Amino acid sequence: MPIETTLTVVDRLADDAELTAVPFGADLAPPVELPVPVTALLSHHEAKGEPGEVFEVPVVRGDGVGRVLLYGMGDNTAPALRKAGAAVARKAKGRHSLSVLVPPSDDVSALVEGALLASYTFRIGETRTRAVEEIVFTGADEQAVRRGEVAARATALARDLTNTPADVATPEWLADQARLIAADHGLAVRVWAGEDLGPFGGIRAVGQGSIHPPRFVQLQYTPENAGDGTPHVVLAGKGITFDTGGLSLKPTEGMKTMKSDMAGGAAVMAVMSALTAFDVPVRVTGLIACAENAISGSAQRPSDVITQYGGRTVEVLNTDAEGRLVLADALAYADAELDPDAMIDIATLTGAAKVALGPSIGALYATDESLADSLLRAGEVGGDRFWRMPLVEDYRSDLDSDVADLTNVDRKMSGAAGSVIAALYLREFIGKRPWAHLDIAGPARSTADEGHLTKGATGFGVRMLLSYLAD
Ligand code: BES
Ligand code: MN
Ligand code: ZN
């Protein structure tokens, strides 16, 4: 269902292309003949060649009239091309075929990503997708186009998993999807359920109020020619299939988007699905901590004390701070059992991160400078931007409990620096590993069809993590 548009790569523009997109300033050889010079057209439209600008122009086509889309590509960088690709694909809605003449660029894959991601739709029941059926890229390096396609389809997979309503997308369903991904892409997979979840006290506590019991999922990718020196990265995703808040119940307004509370887990699954195609040179283990934070007679209560993986006890003062409870198990498990060189978690963790940075930028916390720098750079390249946030030592004591090793929220319940406090909580479980935490509560969803984004889940983080791992 996600991106139904197909993609081909050819050397030359076809003479009879239904609709042809040509960048401003391109050397226009036949078969494209404009009625007036490009410069005249641009001044007529008051166009500057900025990315996102697209004009339809009638052209001479034998005895008849053909159609050309002139599109701006700005400074020809990845962000500009991503925007240009999206604008062109949106203009081609409802058409059978679009031919895109690609400008010379090192970032062709960004153009492809933009075009495909703007063509994403999610509907249940009668589909009314009007995305262009086929895009033909001309004059582009085939490998670059295919890389863009893999990244876009992985992002679309994350959107699909996240957009699927929680009555379908239960922890069991997510684990089944992980098994399918493993089978399709040659990954090892292990799923913990029931009794096996014994040591995972956070996942059990969060899931105990739901009729859909929790799961813990592990996907493993090993590159060809892996040896003892091959680095190992662990990705851990928050997989809360629905977050009612638990007994610390959310109001409806805050609850109705909470089927997206597994966007981090979906991002991890999507990244895992693309590693083979990207020929990623490092070992990667994906962990997805899946539970439904439901409300019922069996739900955990504010003041219950739980035991996280590894034995640390936690006084749960707010059942709505559940993401950190499931992620702490995943991080402690990875530290104890997987011997990773770096651990990265990704989660729709706090409303505070959304308030601080809004819908365009994710919050990044890290204990390791070079890991932080690499991730920030990968974010600029991949198109998922992050901003580094501080792990403020002064606030750590706010997590001290009177009755257990830790509380799960600021015990003064001031609500201040909620995203920082959540990060400090997770840091308790990383041992001595280099670690980064990505809070994507803001950018995980979009409220509009805009550029490469579509309403609902965005798949934010997938392309950043892929470009980090591929380098
Ligand atoms: N899933 C939410 C965070 C969230 C909020 C994501 C809005 C996306 C949009 C998380 O589980 C949560 O409820 N966090 C609480 C923490 C608080 C109880 C300390 C929050 O942010 O209010
Ligand atoms: Mn919550
Ligand atoms: Zn949550």
TrEMBL record:
Top-level EC class as recorded in UniProt: hydrolase
Gene3D superfamilies linked to this entry: Leucine Aminopeptidase, subunit E, domain 1 (3.40.220.10), Zn peptidases (3.40.630.10)
GO terms (BP aspect): proteolysis
Organism superkingdom: Bacteria
N-terminal signal peptide: none
Residue sites binding Mn(2+) 1 per the record: 243, 320, 322
Active site: 250, 324
Cofactor, how bound (note): Binds 2 manganese ions per subunit.
Residue ranges of every copy of the Cytosol aminopeptidase domain listed in the record: 318-325
EC number(s) given by UniProt: 3.4.11.1, 3.4.11.10
Pfam families: Peptidase_M17 (PF00883), Peptidase_M17_N (PF02789)
Molecular-function annotations in GO: manganese ion binding; metalloaminopeptidase activity
Cofactor: Mn(2+)
PROSITE patterns referenced in this protein's UniProt entry, alphabetically: CYTOSOL_AP (PS00631)
Compartment(s) of residence: Cytoplasm
Cellular compartments per GO CC: cytoplasm
Annotated catalysed reactions: Release of an N-terminal amino acid, Xaa-|-Yaa-, in which Xaa is preferably Leu, but may be other amino acids including Pro although not Arg or Lys, and Yaa may be Pro. Amino acid amides and methyl esters are also readily hydrolyzed, but rates on arylamides are exceedingly low; Release of an N-terminal amino acid, preferentially leucine, but not glutamic or aspartic acids
Keyword Protease set for record: yes
Keywords of the record: Aminopeptidase, Cytoplasm, Hydrolase, Manganese, Metal-binding, Protease
Database matches in InterPro entries: Leucine_aapep/pepB (IPR011356), Macro_dom-like (IPR043472), Peptidase_M17_C (IPR000819), Peptidase_M17_leu_NH2_pept (IPR023042), Peptidase_M17_N (IPR008283)
Family of this protein: Belongs to the peptidase M17 family.
Function: Presumably involved in the processing and regular turnover of intracellular proteins. Catalyzes the removal of unsubstituted N-terminal amino acids from various peptides.
Name under which the protein is recorded: Probable cytosol aminopeptidase
Organism: Planotetraspora kaengkrachanensis
Gene from which the chain derives: pepA
